Amino acid sequence: MTDQQNTAATEEESQPQFSLQRIYVRDLSFEAPKSPAIFRQQWEPSVGLDLNTRQKALEGDFHEVVLTLSVTVKNGEEVAFIAEVQQAGIFLIKNLDAASMSHTLGAFCPNILFPYARETLDSLVTRGSFPALMLAPVNFDALYAQELQRLQEEGGQTVQ
Fold it and tell me: What is the reported pTM?
């Protein structure tokens, strides 16, 4: 009976584990360089979005993933506002092979963080008295696959 319990415990410990520990804002900035004059102009915005992720191994099996959304909105040729949010999360990830770990950190975790970053960015923009900024969903799996392909084409590298 004890051998069966030990075997079951060993199998459970070797199973992949994923757990979200914390989501938080790491950095936040907003700049409206043409205020208040920009509010008196006809509003015809063009939106530029820059999206980046990075990850860092913490102690043990903990990992920090940071999703950065940078938005520059122009009204005509003038910059109406620049907003940036770094939405971060701490994740417990155990017992994954290198390819699965890379995919989890590069696509799965950013998928979890994106709705929080989008809401934070939208709130920030409306506090600046600009119309709500409703960003479309992002397919992080497709972005991850594109990045893998780009790295392979550059030198036959694989993402670890």
Answer: 0.84
Answer whether 118's CB lies under 8 Å from 111's CB: no
CB 79 within 8 A of CB 72: yes
Which SS3 state, helix, strand or coil, does residue 39 take? helix
User: Any idea what the CATH number is for the domain that residue 129 is in?
Assistant: 3.10.420.10
| Three-state secondary structure string covering 104-144 | HHHHHHHHHHHHHHHHHHHHHHHHCCCCCCCCCCCCHHHHH
Residue 56's domain spans which residues? 16-155
- Dist. CA 156–CA 42, nearest whole Å: 50
CA distance 80 to 39: 9
Q: In what order do the strands lie in the sheet with 17-31?
A: 17-31, 78-94, 62-75, 45-57
Q: Domain for residue 1, yes or no?
A: no
- pLDDT tens digits, residue range 59-100? 999 999 999 999 999 999 999 999 999 999 999 999 999 999
Instruction: Specify the DSSP element, H or E, that contains 93.
Output: strand 78-94
Q: Is residue 3 part of a domain?
A: no
Domain count for the chain: 1
- Whether residue 126 lies inside any domain: the answer is yes
